[in-house]
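Protein modeling request. Please complete all fields; requests missing the sequence field cannot be processed.
Requester role: graduate student
Desired output: 3D structure, token encoding
Chains: 1
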Amino acid sequence: MTSGARSTPVLRSSWIWPLVSCLLVTGSTICGQISAVTGRDESVGVRFTNVAQQAGLNISTIYGDEHRNRYLLETTGSGAAFIDYDNDGWQDIFLVNGTRLDRLPQNLNSTNRLFRNSSNGKFVDVTDKAGLVRSGWGQSVCAGDYDNDGYIDLFVSSYGKNALYHNNRNSTFTELADKAGVANNRTRWGSGCAFLDYDHDGLLDLFVASYIDLDLDILVAPDFSYQILDTEDFETNAKRYGYTQEIQANARRAVDELVAMIETRAFPFGE
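Delivered output (271 residues):
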């Protein structure tokens, strides 16, 4: 974690938190898919125990449909960061969350989460109190003291609008992405991000990677078929699959061109 002109207090050993952060991401339950480390090398001599539930980290990450993924966006997952946001010497946890293309059930809340370290092995959800409630397709998070006031700030890249959370030094944050000029990506999809002082002027700069310019409003669901797009069944299928007449026309045109290429063996990439 980059923190500008000051060093951030860490617990006991500087290498343990990046390691545990990786384990938190790779071993967490994602609503719809479960990541698990398979295989165990007993010769390593170090073993970890999952204590997330006991520690109060019992919120599921929501990212895409629970049973199937239609688009690449639903498969990426999201980021996490260890930060000492209140400067009490104990590392807290910030988790980026996603959402779903279809409406979420009422019992699911897809906001980002901030868990405060209670210094007794427990974490408390302080998201609402800290002013960090936000839902959407969050991607990654980076932490750094971008204004050199001695408190760690947060940047969250997203599919859609990014978020820059300025630490108010009173355990709350204010979102300033628009004001700071970092709300929008070159494409709709911001992926990885990092704070760094690339010109060595003592002020943290921000690097945000952009992924493909994905527009869900004009994409046809990948499970469509030529029969599904038949004009006679348009009303039924439009309601079922969320198509518009423009999407149907574009899809039919693409299928017609593909059929013509097959019939004339006119593929540009050879036999």
